[in-house]
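=== RUN LOG ===
request id: a7f3
mode: sequence -> structure
chains: 1
length: 300
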Amino acid sequence: MRPGHSVVALGSFLLPGAIAWGSLGHITVAYIASNFVKENTAAYFQDILQNNTEHYLAGVATWADSIRYTKWGRFSKNFHFIDAKDTPPTYCGVDFERDCKEEGCVVSSIQNYTSQLLDTELWPWRRSQAAKFVIHFVGDIHQPLHVENVAQGGNGIHVKWESSEFNLHHVWDTSIAEKMLGGIHRKPYDAGFEWAANLTDQIRSGKYEPDSKLWAQGLSLDDPIGTAMKWANESNAVVCTHVFPEGPEAIAGQELAGDYYEKAAPVIELQVAKAGYRLAAWLDLIADKASGTTQFVDEL
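=== RESULT ===
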């Protein structure tokens, strides 16, 4: 299925001023999830989000970023990450008690907003808001620099990208993914839709098909902290292997659009694919529990 006029209209209406797993990553994760959720899950979240189109997840995938620096939404600014106080590349690891701020982190936020989604006594607008946060935070936790403390998740490390200066976090959020797709020309919804279609095919019958059966193992609504910590540690391991393979100091000021990009791009693609597949499984569990049915996540 190719994006039609509705995708173009959606992009022009919702696109923020700055392309930021950035927008492209989050939108792609959401479209992948849309391709894997069960029919009853789609109907459940279309109702909660008041959107019965195929864009019901993608259309809200960047909402949490759009409100985090507003006066109203600043309470959520720490919810997008967890600061692993490790020492890459010699040691990578996330510890919930050590690394989650008192105000909250992406791990505790997945737990909190999943619980709100399941609370049928909450006002509908609260459950809709909770859904938007869950959709976004499952994407965030799969971005390696959202689970790392060094230089504020790479924001304080300046590097070069095709001779221009960026911070490392931006490169992992946006630059590598956009280069993989040959540029997105300020149309992240079109690009995300197409990328999601390709990754969906790779999950169903391509290079990711064998391993994808393991991606949703261990998901449990009874232990959302444990589930999210598994994802966080998996993402954090990439910090040692691909983000800082020679240490944070060695990467500062380096041109990353060459060999570094070639090694990092497949990892980012895999993380986006995992995030979308796992988001679908998580939303299925939520919808099934809300409707009183049981779903086994390895049946996606």
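=== NOTES ===
Confidence is low (pLDDT under 50) at residues 1-9, 11-20.
The CA atoms of residues 39 and 165 lie 45 Å apart.
=== END ===
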